[in-house]
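Please check what follows.
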Amino acid sequence: MSIMLNHTIVPSPNKIESARFYSRIFGFEYVGVFSHFIVVKVNDTLSLDFDTNEKYESHHYAFKVSEQEFDEIFERLKAENILYGSGPFEPENMQINHNDGGRGVYFRDPGGHLLEILTVDYKIS
């Protein structure tokens, strides 16, 4: 069996608000309470466990999506007037990128984490 990431904890000032944001924007399944976390299933093997914290560093979470999923998520971003951008240092320039022949966009979640959706893997050499 290959090693796979099973879950990760996402710190947030409001774990319920953040979990609902990810469910709404990405279409992830909102599971709800598990211990003191609020759980969102990304897919069959990965969940995000939201935890309320007052102090934390902003993280970057990148999600590879299909072309159709990109369109759907991007439409939800625009419908909610969420600022987005073409790169990690330009997350609000209201442009998408076409890196490596795909599409990508960056935006912030309610807790300030930098999120990314991309349709192709980056070519790392």
Observations:
- DSSP finds two helices and eight strands in the chain.
- Strands lie at 7-12, 29-34, 37-41, 47-52, 60-64, 84-85, 104-108, 114-118.
- The CA atoms of residues 6 and 15 lie 19 Å apart.
